[in-house]
Amino acid sequence: MNVPIKLTDRKRQAIVDAAIAEFRASGFESTSMDKVAATAGVSKRTVYNHFPSKDELFAHILQQLWCSTSSLEDTPYDSALPLRAQLLDMLWKKMAMLEDAYFLDLARVAIAEAIHSPERAHDMVARLSAKEEGITRWLRAAQADGKLRPADPVLASHMLQGQLKTFAFWPQVTLNQPPLDLATQTTVVEATVDMFLAYYGTHVAG
């Protein structure tokens, strides 16, 4: 049974969507709450009822971006499963997130503001980076199990995920290129895992 969305929730989402569009088009400083209200089709008072300030509205957008990475936290290391299969599962989750249009819109807003006003975005960007700790913990557990060779797990995590971002994130965010087709996604994911295991794997890796 579908639960109807409350009018107040629809208005709140309309405000967020409008803010993303305005921040993308004009940047943080040039975006006003009046513009957001007009784009959302609501009164300025309604905007302020949901978000007391432009800073809080922007922080909410970045919070959504932060929370959208939480699926990467849901893959605990399993010593009984082959290493390659687990890595493929994690990277496919990452790929699904990177091709999501809403995630890419949020990322564009965050990155643009980080460029124009590093001090405003610094704290949230640090929190976004920390969310990748889920993969780092997985790598650390695999090392403790003797399946990956000893190495800095944070660096290894960036190496692993950076390959995907090279093809399935930065071109889309900065050049507005379309998402990768399924065949290319498969090639990128599998090649990334195989290259990673060729360097970090041990003879006991599954």
Describe this structure in words.
The radius of gyration is 20 Å and the shape is elongated. The chain has helices at residues 7-30, 33-40, 44-50, 54-67, 83-98, 101-116, 118-130, 133-144, 153-168, 170-175, 182-200. 73% of the residues lie in helices and 0% in strands. The chain is an all-alpha fold and 206 residues long. The longest helix has 24 residues, at 7-30.
Quick recap of the structure?
The protein is an all-alpha fold.
* Spans where pLDDT lies below 50 across 5 or more residues: none
Name the CATH class of the largest domain.
Answer: Mainly Alpha
**Tell me, what's the shape?**
elongated
Largest sheet, in brief, is: none
Count of DSSP E strands?
0
In percent, how much strand structure appears in the residues? Answer: under 5%
How would you name the CATH homologous superfamily of the largest domain?
Answer: Tetracycline Repressor, domain 2
Alpha-carbon distance between the two ends? 43 Å
The CATH architecture of the largest domain is: Orthogonal Bundle
Find the CATH topology of the largest domain: Tetracycline Repressor, domain 2
Secondary-structure element order, N to C: HHHHHHHHHHH
Structural domain tally: 2
**Which structural class do the helices and strands define?**
mainly alpha
Gyration radius over CA: 20 Å
Average pLDDT works out at: 86
Number of helices: 11
Summarize the amount of helix as a percent range.
over 70%
